[in-house]
Amino acid sequence: MTNSKSITAAEAAKHVQSGDRVYVGTSSSFAYTFLDALYDRKDELENVTLLCSMSITPCRMFDTDWPSDISPGCKGNPFIFDTFFLGAGERRAHRRHNMAFEYTSFHLSQIDLWMQEIGKPDISFLQVSRPDEDGYFSYGSSGICDHKYVVEETKREVFLESNTGSPYIFGQDNLISPDHKKVAGILYTTGNAPELMPDEIDDTSRQIADIVLEEVPDGATLQLGLGKLSTAIGYDLKQRNDMGIFSELFSQPMMELMKEGNVTNAHKGFMDGMSVFSFSAGTQEMYDFMDHNPQIYGAPFPFVNDARNIAKNKNMISINNAMAVNLYGEVAADAIGYSQQSAVGGQLDFVKGAQWSEGGKSIIVLPSSFVKDGKRQSKISLQFAPGTPVTTPRSEVQYVATEYGCVNLKIRNMSDRVRAMISLAHPDFRDQLTQEAKDCGLI
């Protein structure tokens, strides 16, 4: 292994110049030590664009109160962030701390195109695993999703943060040599990889999980997202056997399903014997489980989120969250109104791929309502708030589930589809929705 490239975070941060575009991480593979060192240069830099996505750990860069009058491109603004997927850190930075931000609506299956046409990093900071016996580093628990393209597109230098808590993942395009021509320095750190604690599961999520369970057969291949609802469904699936995993996300419940033998990956029909994923977010226990695990295979988004590859899995069950669904069956999952919450992500990739699969199903899940300021509000409505983009169009939606049932919209004409959506709404809103649908001539 080349030791001559050892570097401190501060030394690496000095390579960044005003106006640079700097990649700093994705989900559980964020280079936070480098990011902190870059923050320390905030008074020296202007208009440095941070390329990142799905941050899950608090840090000074995203939790500082920046001036309220900054905007992209303005003089005196030290940092801007540019993302294809907002995580908790990016949302805090933009909404609570006035950090300037740019967002591009891309399917995760197109992340190579995003990096080529939007990202275009000048310098990249990558969190990676400990080196293997040949000196190579794995891109870790989430870096596998896009670091291959990050390295290819970086114009000047790549710096590696080798973290003892970052797992070594077997898979496709997942290794980088310390002698790579773009690797200019390596920082060795100890500690945990960025962790995301499991969500507490509420009663509504448990009710929805029980309903969704009826749609998942033994031998199914699973895709699950993040959040308490996906967590509840994941743990409920301990009642099923011989399942497989082909999912953009590897999550805490998936680890449990593998440990307890519910996931065997024996009947997928594509990449049997391996749980296939692109990024992960969970506890250090989960990362340790993934480390050098021959049953876990990581690959970039353009492979895992390719609907044609998804469809190769038998009984592919795709389960995705929604923020709201209207009576047409259109899904809003990444923004409400003009407020960006997350991203289009991989929802449509898996909605399509699952339905192409032999025996597959796509299921959109959401609670029927929520309470804000003591008042219950419906998540099912005649129409979305002005400015709300559609994440998944009605023509692609198949099953929709709330705590009041699960319906297949794909096989229904429009009036029956509207009635089915009303049946999934909270009882407090069904009469109102029915009248609104009648007034518009939908039923």
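(the above was protein one; protein two follows)
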Amino acid sequence: MLTFSATSSAFCLIFILLVPLAGAGLALVNSGLARSRSAAQLMMSSLCVISIAALAYFVCGFAFQGYPNQPAHVVMIGGKPWSWLGDGHLFLHHIALGGSPESLAALLGIFGAGLAGSIPLGAGAERWRLGAACLSSILLAGWTYPLFAHWVWGGGWLAQLGANYGLGQGFVDTSGASTIQGIGGVTALSIAWILGARRGKYQHDGMPSAIPGHNGVLVLFGCLLVLVGWLGLNSAGAMVWNGLPAASSVQVSINTILSAASAALAAALVTNARFGKPDASLTANGWIGGLAASSGACAFVEPLGAVAIGAIAGILVTFAVEWFEVYMSVDDPGGSISAHATGGLWGALSVGFFARLPAEASGAAGEAIAARPGQWLAQLVGIATLIGFVLPLTYGLNWLLDRVYPQRASAEGERQGMDLHDLGAGAYPEFVTHSEEFTER
């Protein structure tokens, strides 16, 4: 079983405590990319979703996620064990909360579930009811997130692909490119589909209208907060889920910032080439997409590989925003689907091409080899599971929720703004905000 020294536990705790800054940054990004009449509701939704996700994960999430070498529900297929679900205690019972690896994993999981739950808020901005967002976060943090996290981090069947089928070392996700970003991204896509587009977003011929956000400064400042949180997330994930020493945080941090930087610059260059000037919102989405991609292999790639991963993520995110909006008619005000789902899935796939994974057979500390044959296939299996199973699952759960508790605000509530509809007051009461009737058809 993985053990930490007191020093390593202390460093890991510090890294974990930085993760909430990523949630704060995403809240600012989502708020800034929305119109002013829904800004306060988005910030309030972020706070409520993180709170409820923490409680749901505390009640049953970590029990379902489990921890390697801990009790789990296992089925035998072809004479080989396949772990499907953790079998831990509810309410974190019987966990030594004194800095043990399991307790650190539980704390990181609480923040990870909250971060994943915050991602769909950007896709549902300006029409997703506060109560519905809270109920949806219970489904994500209490079931969807821990289920997939068990398969990846809890010793589940995706992690066992190497032992059972010889596919490299099984599915590898250092710090949540698929488990946090991918889960949050596919949930965001489900929410956007269920809610439908904002009023006035699409013209009669189906072409989208531009609905600019109200505060680019909030968006760009949020990006800086997200970076700090991500440095903690990636460093803590490398230690908790991959057993790496605290010293690995140097490489992880370098790779994280390089991935974000190259992604943002790639997005700025692409938009400048296409539109004549760099686009601030798309550059911000590229920055976040680069961070999401970095979480896949940040502990196992050279800095040059991190630059390549980030640059590709920035380009992919830029075109994904247009593809979802124009060709899929998906209204995603915060760019959450493109930044987190596209960036995260690319980050997971990049492990198979760029990572130098630890040489388990040799047992030599620090020795690494290029990704074994079949590693890219193991990564594809994990990605296919997210798209082919988790996406329909989260869509189905939220569709059922919508039948019981309608998730979209009324037309009148959307017209007057979610601040007044859900909170009874605006974010900027001392200023006259634009009614923006020209977008409402």
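Reviewer note on protein two: The chain has one domain: 23-439.
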